[in-house]
Amino acid sequence: MNELPASQAFRLLEPGPIVMVSTHDNGKSNVMTMGFHMMIQHDPPLIGCVIGPWDHSYHALCRTGECVIAVPGLDLAETVVDVGNCSGADVDKFERFGLKTRSAEQVSAPLLEDCLANIECVVVDDRLLDPYNLFILEAKRIWVNESRTERRTLHHCGDGIFAVDNGTLDLKHRMVKWRHLP
């Protein structure tokens, strides 16, 4: 076996897809790429995400308390990386990368039309911002784009390497424990 630095644990454990986070503050929308997020619980649906003060979106999320988490497909891979390599403080990413948007129902941040799904979120707990930059968001509405033909998602492995989904394995019949719970 070969040893990796402990700082590389995320490369092995990050299960969720790369997402894009949109915000809207002071009349301007922004979008960023994010890899550090996790589901916290089902009811209410809580999502933890790490966005630091070095990100332009951090300040908008702190001020407005709302965002959209969008799940891109494999066909947006290069755009996802490019969006993550520039700052909304310097460039209008929607214009530069041709991102199509539509209005959300409950938040002012835009939905990203070309993504597989969009989750409208509000910040419900910011006590872990210092020292972890961890926002706890509650999912309020979910929009799924059924017209997307590319359904595979990207999973960040570090250094520009991504694992790509390639199907599903259905083992529901083996989940006997959960059949007996309310």
Strand order of the largest sheet: 2-1-5-8-9-4-3
Molecular shape = globular
What is the CA-atom radius of gyration, in angstroms? 17 Å
Look up the CATH topology.
Pnp Oxidase, Chain A
String of helices and strands? HEEEEHEHHEEEHEEEH
- Helix and strand content put the structural class at alpha+beta
Q: Approximately what portion of the residues adopt beta-strand conformation?
A: 35-45%
Average pLDDT figure:
90
CATH architecture: Roll
How many domains make up the coordinates? 1
CATH level 1 class label: Mainly Beta
Major β-sheet annotation? 7 strands, antiparallel
CATH superfamily: Electron Transport, Fmn-binding Protein, Chain A
Q: What share of the residues lie within helices?
A: 10-25%
Describe the overall structure.
The protein is of the alpha+beta class and 182 residues long. The protein has a single domain (6-179), classed as Pnp Oxidase, Chain A, CATH 2.30.110. Helices cover 19% and strands 36% of the residues. It has 6 helices and 11 strands. The strands form 3 sheets. It has a 7-stranded antiparallel beta sheet with strand order 2-1-5-8-9-4-3. The protein is globular and about 50 Å long.
List the main descriptive attributes of the protein structure presented here.
182 residues; alpha+beta; Pnp Oxidase, Chain A; two-stranded antiparallel ribbon; 36% strand; globular; plasmid; Flavin reductase family protein; Split_barrel_FMN-bd; Flavin_Rdtase-like_dom; Flavoredoxin
